[in-house]
Amino acid sequence: MNVAAPADIVQPDSFEFSAENLAEAKKIIARYPEGRQASAIMPLFDMAQRQSGWLPRAAIIRVADMLGVAHIRAYEVATFYTMYNLAPVGEHLVQVCTTTPCWLRGSADIVSACEKHLGIKTGQTTPDGKVTLREVECLGACVNAPLMQVGDDYYEDLDPASTVKILEDLQAGRKPKPGPQTGRQTSAPAPGLTTLKGTA
Amino acid sequence: MATLTIDGAEVTVEDGITVLQACDLAGIEIPRFCYHERLSIAGNCRMCLVEMERSPKPIASCAMPVADGMVIRTNTPSVRKAREGVMEFLLINHPLDCPICDQGGECDLQDQAMAYGRDRNRFQENKRAVKDKDLGPLVATIMTRCIHCTRCIRFATEIAGVEELGAMGRGEHMEVGTYVENALTSELSGNMIDLCPVGALTSKPYAFTARSWELRKTESIDVLDAVGSNIRVDARGREVVRVLPRLNEDVNEEWISDKTRFAYDGLSRQRLDTPYVRQGGKLKPATWEAAFAAIAERLKGVDGSKIAAIAGDLACAESMLALKDLMAALGSVHIDCRQDGAKLDAANRSSYLFNTTIAGIEEADACLLVGTNPRWEATLVNARLRKRWLAGGFPVGLIGAPVDLTYDVQHLGAGPATLKEIFDGRHDFAQVLKAAERPMIILGMAALARKDGAEILAAGVEIAEAFGMVGDGWNGFNVLHTAAARVAGLDLGFVPGEGGRDVEAILTGAQDGGIEAVYLLGADEIDMNRLGEAFVIYQGHHGDAGAHRADVILPGAAYTEKEATYVNLEGRVQRTARAIFPPGEAREDWTILRALSAELGHALPYDSLAALRTRLEDAAPSFAERGTVRPAAWQPFTATGQMLDAPFGAAVDDFYMTDPICRASETMAKCSTLYVSGGVKATGTDG
């Protein structure tokens, strides 16, 4: 967990939303009643992070000022949630779940497959800046364990081979197909349907 | 009213209070860390767990409102076990460095671990370590000791009104700090040291100085502003090592300003510890006899009308009365206690007091500030204004230099013109004042210490009368003083007599020869260059401006070194106590004047402090009552002149450098450099 952005990160001096993001931000702010604009802080942070690739301090301050929130209150929110990246990350943020159900299903092998293929440790970014590897707590898809999240997509029912395949695709600029990697239909029983077989 | 049973005894308490408060009322001690009666309820330390009937789990008593028929138990084995459990968790990450911790001996965690904890720890793993934060020159942090009670965060946000502290991260990784390394920009930050239940926030200047049990504790009064905060002076040997607040709901509640708390190192620097006499242009150390002889020699044959006296901002009532009596005996009417030239009328007590009283602010429902920055001039009055503002329905308007007062202030204008508009009802804020039931006006020294001060005072009085600020049981007319000595000086009539000169005229007289001798009783804030060729006697405790100009220096005692009477801005008579003795040859101020009077052949008629105090009560009956405010009967005040156009300036340019003690203090110098003249964004006056 990154409580404070490490001191050696180069923070940009300022941050501004792009024109369309600014328009979207105004829409988000307008969802909340007068005086409750602070509620828009999390979607705005998310938007800023999508725009910059990470959440620089200038963006936190910009959002806080837009919402009339004390800077420290905005920092509190930004540091509380691990999904806000307070330091730059690679183009693809690979987050492997290692909480108990995934671990029972072999997530340790997934992590080591990633580390071996990418040549980095968890928490690091590849030298070419393409991939950041991170270990995370429960992603809430235990039924498809083990799994990892890349950007906004879940890659489920992994084994070391399919993991490496996904990473290769990412590095080559292709987009691998999200979801279960075993051909299983969403989270239907893994060995095939056990009931409702007749209905199609 | 709710009736509940606590440990088998029935207690009837007010509705809306919490179980913890009810237990306190019933005399049952509940351990707590995060709960503090003046802060919002957080409920995060879990130390106050008690058992409630029909609740399957213990409840946090600080966050549970009382209800009729509740049955609370605080002394069962399960409560004891719950507390032991909480304490064990708190201690998991707390370093056991009590032997080198400044909080040791006065630490809530230490005390409660003894009373409610287990005698051993089952935690075998590594403790976490947290990086220390830089909060500026006053508050030291050892964040590994922090138990995350969040009292400091709530204090900064709620009482001090500076949202600069927060909790970063969460769970195991939570850290209290400012995120970006910034010094706290509050004049109340020192109070976080008192609030911190562990040794995470401690006093930087006091670090590793003393253990609390070695100190001699003296209950006294602060004189570095006119609020008269109640303080405790802790001394070891011949040195004051710290100053702490003392509870007084009517004045400072339990807070003090950073100046009050941290200026004490100025008490042991730049001190005048022996008399000096100027010989051949140079000040030379002398004996008391030689100093008195030099004065007697010089004043011989000088007519009383050519002698003047000015009392400074830190002078006590006793010494001012003694000096006034001496001047009267010498035949001089040229005395003044208003160094800044404020046009205050000593004959009209209601026109120079803070009539509403500090606690009375909480009953007001609108406020007009005129030429004042209470955040710097009287920090605790500002804290009270903020407290009232937080309660809601309290519009505040300001005429003068725009300042950040930590609450919403409507800036109405810059000078007397706006005052006139309000009086004429032409300004929007006039409607606000008219609609209010108990409006108040506060006139600052920036409005009164100028040529048209009397006219502005009169305008203030007119506004007070026109907008119903003065009536039965309510007096909303207030003058905000900056000097601890001022109200006592005015009460005693330490102002020019019939045909006498005020400070301005004394200085003019000193230049043109109309005044031959000037007695400065701790007066350092006047322009010493204007004293011309006059013979200057300086009585005071610090080698500041006055002492440099003086021809004879008589070393006096600072407020921590004498039993002296001060009157705060409300007119509350309070007494300091002697915590340490004055250094070297320095003496209590009234005794110096008594001894000098005998040398000059006009021996004052009091030989003891008791006799002087009897005289004090004769001179001004208000001195008979201590600790309370005797309301002043309302008297109208008028002035004949016209108000000028010039906007109001600032009465205090630098919060940390207002008097000789602060100017001698290294801590205050650091704060001044950081907060006022550089580094951090300005606090009080950034517009």
Task: Name the descriptors.
heterodimer; A: 200 residues; alpha/beta; Arc Repressor Mutant, subunit A; Glutaredoxin; 2 domains; five-stranded mixed β-sheet; 7 helices; 37% helix; B: 687 residues; seven-stranded mixed β-sheet; 27% helix; globular; disordered C terminus
Produce a short descriptive summary:
The complex is a heterodimer of chains A (200) and B (687). Chain A is an alpha/beta fold and 200 residues long.
Commentary on this structure:
- Chain A has 200 residues and is α/β, with parallel strands linked by helices.
- Chain A contains 7 helices and 5 strands.
- Chain A folds into 2 domains: 19-80, Arc Repressor Mutant, subunit A; 92-180, Glutaredoxin.
- Chain A has helices at residues 19-30, 41-52, 57-67, 71-80, 100-104, 107-118, 160-171, and strands spanning 92-97, 131-136, 148-150, 153-156, 179-180.
- A 5-stranded mixed beta sheet of chain A has the order 2-1-3-4-5, covered by helices on one side.
- In chain A, strand 3 (148-150) and strand 4 (153-156) form a beta hairpin.
- Chain B is of the alpha/beta class.
- Chain B has 21 helices and 28 strands.
- A 7-stranded mixed beta sheet of chain B has the order 14-13-26-25-24-15-16, sandwiched between helices.
- The two termini of chain B are 48 Å apart.
- Chain A binds chain B through residues 1, 3-4, 57, 70-73, 75-76, 79-80, and chain B through 163-170, 173-175, 178-180.
